[in-house]
Amino acid sequence: MANTRVIIVGAGIAGPVLAVFLKTRGYDPIIYERLPGPGEGGLGFTLQPNGLRVLSLIPKLLEQIPGHSPERMIHCSCLDGKEDILIDNDISPATMRERFGFPVIGVRRPEFQRLLIDTAEEHGIEIKWGHHAIAFEQSEDAVEITFTNGAKDTASFVVGCDGLHSNTRTALFGVEKADFTGMVRVGGWSPTPPALQGNIAMVNNYGEGRHMIAYPIAEDKYSWAISTLGAEAKEDWRTQTAEQQNEIRNGPLSAWGFGAGDLVKTGQKIVKYGLYDRPELNSWFKGRVVLLGDAAHPTSPHLGQGANQAFEDIYHFMRLLRKHNPSAGQLSTELLSQVFTDYQDLRLPRTSELVKGSRRQGEIRVVEGIDACRARDEAIRAGFNGDAARRARDELLSGPFTSSEM
Q1: How many whole angstroms separate alpha carbon 44 and alpha carbon 189?
Q2: Ramachandran sector of residue 101 (left: φ over 0; alpha: ψ -120 to 50; beta: rest)
Q3: Phi and psi of 287, rounded to 5°?
Q4: Which residues 6+ apart lie within 8 Å of 249 measured at CB?
Q5: The pTM is what?
Q6: Fewest Cβ atoms nearer than 10 Å: which of 24, 116, 250, 272?
Q7: Rounded CA gap, 155 and 144, in Å?
Q8: Cα-atom radius of gyration of the chain, to the nearest Å?
Q9: Would you report the helix, strand and coil content of the chain in percent, each value rounded to 5?
Q10: DSSP state of 162
Q11: pLDDT in tens, 184-211
Q12: What is the per-residue DSSP string for 223-278?
């Protein structure tokens, strides 16, 4: 009897990880990706203990991750030419492992995606590039997908892991209006600046009307991104032209303190993009098609939890598949609906809370006017290590399981 076939739409970050778990638990996954091959776009992000806890369930994956761990978390402010340390916390690998079992790792997205793709292919999972899904036709026991190139394929069920601009989400719930938040991001990667050499840290740098997050992605390299209030910019994540990049390198941000200006001046592959909000969904599935990760709950980047929450989605999705379908056999519509319902009922409230929290963080961090900035700085200094904030961080980074049930 053939294994239950599953189509995954999207070969970004979540898709290959989900495919590996499905394959190792008796399913027959295949991945379709609209791009012609692995992308070089995108900046970096941080793998946090909750996400790494899920990835640790794939043997030998963690030791292959191409990235670097910070030793400290520093929040600092530059106002009126004065530099002030607001917070300086130990987040070294030893400390984080002692508290949560796993460190924080900064990675470049293209390098990490390549690792995940290689891992999926090593598990015998086929990835079909250049396949843009446009239609999903459901029957009692299967889903047929049609692609723009005329190809078709059929599976027992489909998981949309196709990210922020999800075709799967649009096919299920229609076109949605993306609302510009009034905030724009500029980012790139740079050699480690002199101010941070010998003091490898994740740095939150606050100024008037701007915030920078920077963290190591290699022993000698940092990824950084600056949020500012500004005119609307497309979400295309495309590298700026040489002229545009030079304007950013030589602009007012290059004079920023605490090494931030040095990161801007030496920035490579600088991108600029707008930050948008999308409507919160009431459901993540229809019939035999379900959403996961950014396709289900796209988030602004201010908490650094996008990829990590996608991995938590995967853990609970797989745990519930095992609970309701331990044989990994063909699923009736009723049984599949139970899996999808339990998954969304568990994850939708949690991710909704984090999406809203991320938006609030952006609004708190990027304020204009010296008095408002000073009030922000004092609130950050006072609140970061408060009992409530510490409990929330501990709960977040300790998820999504103590002992795996997957």
Answers
A1: 8
A2: left
A3: 60, -115
A4: 264, 265, 266, 267, 270
A5: 0.95
A6: 250
A7: 7
A8: 21
A9: 40, 30, 35
A10: -
A11: 999 999 999 998 888 899 999 999 999 9
A12: EEEEEEE-S---S--PBPPHHHHHHHHTSGGGG-TTTHHHHHHT-EEEEEEEEEE-
Map out the domains of the chain with their CATH numbers: 5-178+278-397 (3.50.50.60)
Query: What gap in Å lies between CA 182 and CA 161, rounded to an integer?
Result: 27
Is the Cβ–Cβ distance between 129 and 11 less than 8 Å?
Answer: yes
- 382 alpha-carbon distance from chain centroid: 28
Considering Cα of 336, then 342, then 348, then 354, what sign does the dihedral take? negative
- Tell me how far apart the alpha carbons of residues 179 and 185 are, in angstroms, rounded to a whole number: 15
pLDDT, one tens digit per residue, over 313-353 is 999 999 999 999 999 999 999 999 999 999 999 999 999 99
3-state secondary structure of 405: coil
Cβ-Cβ contacts under 8 Å for 83 (sequence gap 6 or more): 76, 77, 257, 258
d(C-alpha 44, C-alpha 216), whole Å: 9
Q: Which residue has the tokens 């941080």?
A: 46
